[in-house]
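User: Can you help me understand a structure? I only have the sequence.
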Amino acid sequence: MEFRITVEELLKALSRAQGIAERKNTIPILANVLIEAGDDGLMRFTAFDLDIALVSEHPAEVIAKGAITLPAKLLFSLAKSLKGESVHFQVSGSTAHLTCGSAHCKIVGMPAEEYPTLPKDENSNLTRVSGRVLQDLIAKTSFAISLDETRYVLNGLYFEAPEKGLMRAVSTDGHRLSLMSKRVEDGELQLGRGVIFPRKGLLELKRLFDEAPDAEAFIGFTDTLAIFKKSGLSMIMRLIDGQFPDYQEVIPQESKGGVKLDRKLFLDAIKFMTNFSEGRNSSIKLNLDKGSLKISANTDGSEGQNEIPVEYEGDKIEIGFNARYLIDALSAIDEDNVCFELMDDQSPGVLKPFAGKDFMSVIMPMRI
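Assistant: Let's start by predicting it. Here is the structure, written out as tokens:
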């Protein structure tokens, strides 16, 4: 195999592969990227960890067809150090010789024939979707995905199409829930039931859409796989097999009224209070009364307090929350004003955009 590719395209391909190629896997070849040269003037770079596969196509001058797998991390590190405009690859057996300007190196890889076969996706019906919509759904819900590996079905994002033209993403770690809905106009998503995307695959997918949010994209499903495609790029990921909890049961059906808050003012006040709360479960106390919200926290004898004006005429409520959960939810909202719905000091709080209905975060209270 022999080809010449620009440093820019090589870096793009290897950057995409870094999050998927498994350096710590018990199967050594999964730390490699599969590089294939075809007769169509394209190079194909594949990364696969047995659950997520990414195939990226890049223009190149193909001199001789062939394939090899090379260490993804090493190749990416070398590519970042190259000073020339293009790289010349010459492959003999399982060894690749790279030349770029005056730089030359030899990399020992593994035979392409030993690389695992990717999952088949022939049975999927692809639907065109907006990359920006998918990007937004992931960004505004992924922070609430559970990191507790004993609760496997919560280690991913639940995705459903409850009605024609509507996509919804839901995540929960048992202490909070994040829900985002988006209207789509590109067609009806072929999804008979809700599915659970693995967290790692979601974050890699978001990173790909961050490259070009407005690029045309397609999504499809089989019984066990999710498939994403856009020009020059495809990703296949295995779905989490399990039953996601009934998230509707977690959402409070009533409240004593919503509190209208300036989002940035509320967010800054909570961030200030984190100076007086410690640890992963750092708690703050909210005292809500007519016209005002007092926020306080204390640790090791030190304490802080802040007060912000609010539009509220209901009964007094004193309640505690994890400060980080509130910060994550407020950071996911784009509007200037938010609505914070509270029932009492024992019930979950619900944060929403004041004018919008597409996002909500349900947060369990803490004892204070």
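Now, to help you interpret it: The longest helix spans residues 199-211. Residues 16 and 332 are 25 Å apart (CA to CA). Let me know which part you'd like to focus on.
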